[in-house]
C-alpha cells in the first residue's frame, strides 16, 4: 500500500475544508491504517470506535431499507465527527471544529474516498 499517497489524500482534505482537525483511515474491523491526528487523540481507539459506529449505522440503514450507507455524522459541543464508508472494507474519520462546513466536507470527501479506495485496493491486488 502506498502510505505516502494515503497521507497526501488526508492532508488534501485539510487544505480543502477549513476546520478539519484530525483524519484517520481504518479497516472495517477497526484496525488503524493511517492517521493524521493531534497528540490528544488516540488514533487506534478512534479507529475502533468509528468501525463500531459505522457498522451499527450500516445495519440500521439496511434494516430500514435506506440503501447503502454513505456516511454518518456526530455533532458535539466542540465540533463534529464524520464517518465515511470507503468501499466495503474500510472507513475514514474526519474530525472538525465547530466552524467546519459539513456540507463542503461531504462534497470534498467524495473524490478523496474514491482515491483512498483505489489506494487500499492496490494493496489487495499486490497480495494476489
Give the tags.
single chain, 128 residues, alpha+beta, five-stranded antiparallel beta sheet, 48% helix, globular
Note down, in words, how this protein is organized.
There is one protein chain. With 128 residues, the protein is of the alpha+beta class. It is built from 3 helices and 5 strands, in the order αββαβββα. The protein has a 5-stranded antiparallel beta sheet, sandwiched between helices. The model has no long low-confidence stretch (mean pLDDT 92).
What multimeric state do the chains show?
single chain
Give, in spatial order, the strands making up the sheet with the most strands. 2-1-5-4-3
Q: Figure out the total of helices.
A: 3
Structural class: alpha+beta
Kindly state the number of beta strands: 5
In one word, what is the shape? globular
Order of helices and strands: HEEHEEEH
How far apart the termini lie comes to 13 Å
Helix content: 40-55%
In short:
The protein has 3 helices and 5 strands, in the order H-E-E-H-E-E-E-H. The chain has helices at residues 3-16, 43-63, 102-127; strands at residues 20-27, 32-36, 71-76, 79-86, 90-96. It is globular and about 35 Å long.
Summarize the SSE layout with pairings.
Layout: H1 3-16, E1 20-27, E2 32-36, H2 43-63, E3 71-76, E4 79-86, E5 90-96, H3 102-127
Antiparallel strand pairs: 1-2, 1-5, 3-4, 4-5
Helix pairs in contact: 1-3
Amino acid at each position: 500500500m502506498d502510505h505516502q499517497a494515503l497521507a497526501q489524500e488526508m492532508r488534501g482534505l485539510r487544505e480543502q475544508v477549513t476546520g478539519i482537525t484530525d483524519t484517520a483511515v481504518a479497516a472495517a474491523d477497526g484496525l488503524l491504517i493511517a492517521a493524521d491526528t493531534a497528540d490528544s487523540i488516540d488514533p487506534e481507539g478512534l479507529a475502533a470506535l468509528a468501525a463500531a459506529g459505522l457498522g451499527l449505522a450500516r445495519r440500521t440503514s439496511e434494516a430500514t431499507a435506506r440503501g447503502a450507507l454513505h456516511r454518518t455524522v456526530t455533532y458535539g459541543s466542540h465540533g463534529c465527527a464524520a464517518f465515511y464508508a470507503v468501499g466495503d472494507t474500510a472507513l475514514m474519520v474526519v474530525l472538525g471544529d465547530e466552524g467546519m462546513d459539513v456540507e463542503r466536507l461531504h462534497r470534498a470527501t467524495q473524490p478523496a474516498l474514491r482515491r483512498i479506495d483505489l489506494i487500499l485496493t492496490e494493496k489487495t491486488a499486490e497480495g494476489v
